[in-house]
Amino acid sequence: MRNVLGVVGSLRRDSYNRRLLRHAAGVAPERLRITVADDIVRLPLFDEDLEADGLPPEVAAAQGAIRSADGVVIASPEYNFGVPGVLKNFVDWASRPPRRGAFIGKPVLLMGASSGRTGGTVQCQGQLRISLAVLGAHVLPAPPVLVAEAGDKFDGDALVDETAREVSALALGRFLELVDAMSAGAGRREAPSTAAAT
């Protein structure tokens, strides 16, 4: 059994991405258990003074949840063609301490749902791929899970669009293969922190 952390990059209670992640948890392969951590991104703004004074409990808990998981699935909207601030802040906290961040060597699957007609969070995912790669994570390269016009793809909490269901199922299967491969591979490598000193 592979235990995976599910992260929603939105604080909205009725977020399409919260629904998408719950769908993924419900249809994941038998050996892939996704635990959706509601509001794990609800953290204080990254501040090295806070870190120096002692990590806030919610930050320490978020870092611990990433470290103890076999992998991470992130489902996020796209705000103004970019990564939502709360999710970027989560990633910045996870990058600490320098060269020993929680994402080092961690398999990651990105998913996204958007109410817009085009893209389906492609810009957000592209930016996340860069940040996570710098942090030493291993992001599944394909297939991209990009759900555009999400208002038409869900019926209540259920993802009803057949193409989106097929793509997400394929991605989850490949993600399990990546998690298995990473778990069987060599130890974690070090990577620099992107949250630079100011």
Shape: globular
Could you list the spans in which at least 5 consecutive residues all have pLDDT below 50?
A: 186-190
The main β sheet shows up as: 6 strands, parallel
Structural class: alpha/beta
The separation of the N and C termini measures: 42 Å
CATH homologous superfamily label? Flavodoxin domain
Description:
Strands 1, 2, 3, 4, 5 and 6 form a six-stranded parallel β-sheet that branches. This protein has a two-stranded antiparallel ribbon with strand order 7-8. Residues 186-190 have low confidence and may be disordered. It is 38% helix and 17% strand. The longest helix is centred in the last third of the chain and has 23 residues, at 162-184. Helix 4 links the parallel strand 3 (71-75) and strand 4. It starts with a strand and ends in a 14-residue tail after the last helix. It has 198 residues and is α/β, with parallel strands linked by helices. It has a single domain, classed as Rossmann fold.
